[in-house]
Amino acid sequence: MKNNQVSISHGNAKMGAIPSVSLPACVTCNPSAPCFKKCYAMRLERRYKTVSNAYARNLDILTTNPALYWSSVYTAAATVKYFRYHVSGDIPNIEYFVHMVQLAAVLPGTTFLAFTKQFPIVNAYLNNGGTIPANLKIIFSNWGAWKCENPHNLPVCEVVLKGSEPAPDWKVCGGNCTECACRGVGCWELKKGDTIAIYEH
Predict the structure, then answer these.
(1) Do residues 5 and 72 make contact, with C-beta atoms less than 8 angstroms apart?
(2) pLDDT (tens digit, 9 = 90+) per residue, 136-152?
(3) Is 21 left (phi over 0), alpha (psi -120 to 50) or beta?
(4) Coil, strand, or helix at residue 138?
């Protein structure tokens, strides 16, 4: 990967073959979230320097050349049915979220998925009259007693902490995004008011 190119992942053990773009953990995340201090993505970045470098490069390109960042995401997403934001990191600001919305609008054949704890950004966009395309699945990610403010009733992910069990009415993550997408179940199909459970990792 060249230093002037956005790093796009073409899948991993959990995602299957679904491509994704990521940013550095913590520096783009909501610092009030309890997972901020024990982030699994940050542990991964510390363990694998190539991963850390790729995510840092993505943020640098986003900051210095946003047109290149978004054109790279567009190119990666334009020829696939499913695309994931932020295996690491989160929505850094409102401008970024607006780009996510605009990209989904011009690529209606691609379903985009993003888990986020940056609920103030998403809520501000919706409170100001913004709309989210149906093919952009935004899922608020709760963590135990810590809950995202969710006045617009967006889908929610509940992290099942060790020693706990999911509520009977929650859907449960199947463990492989590609398999769920092919079966038409899981996160990709969540609607307003739905909850999916993911076990703490």
Answers:
(1) yes
(2) 999 999 988 889 999 99
(3) beta
(4) strand
Q: Distance between CA 136 and CA 123 in Å, rounded?
A: 15
**Which distant-in-sequence residues (6+ apart) come within 8 Å of 38 by Cβ?**
none
DSSP E strands in the chain: the ranges are 8-9, 20-21, 82-85, 111-116, 136-143, 156-160, 171-172, 195-199
Residue 95, H or E segment = helix 94-106
Rounded-to-integer distance, Cα 58 and Cα 184, Å: 31
Give the DSSP letter of residue 12: B
> Phi and psi dihedrals of 105, rounded to 5?
-65, -35
Identify the band that residue 16 occupies on the pLDDT scale cut at 50, 70 and 90.
low
Q: What is the pLDDT of residue 165?
A: 80
Answer whether 0.85 is exceeded by the pTM: yes
Q: What is the pLDDT of residues 104-138, one digit of tens each?
A: 999 999 999 999 999 999 999 999 999 999 999 99
| β-bridge pairing 136-143 and 111-116 | parallel
Q: For every residue of 164-179, which 3-state class applies, written as one string?
A: CCCCCCCEECCCCHHH
Place of tokens 């550095």: 24
Q: What's the N-to-C CA distance of the chain in angstroms?
A: 29
Q: Is residue 134 within 8 Å of 110, Cβ to Cβ? A: no
Strand order in the sheet with 156-160: 8-9, 20-21, 82-85, 111-116, 136-143, 156-160, 195-199, 171-172
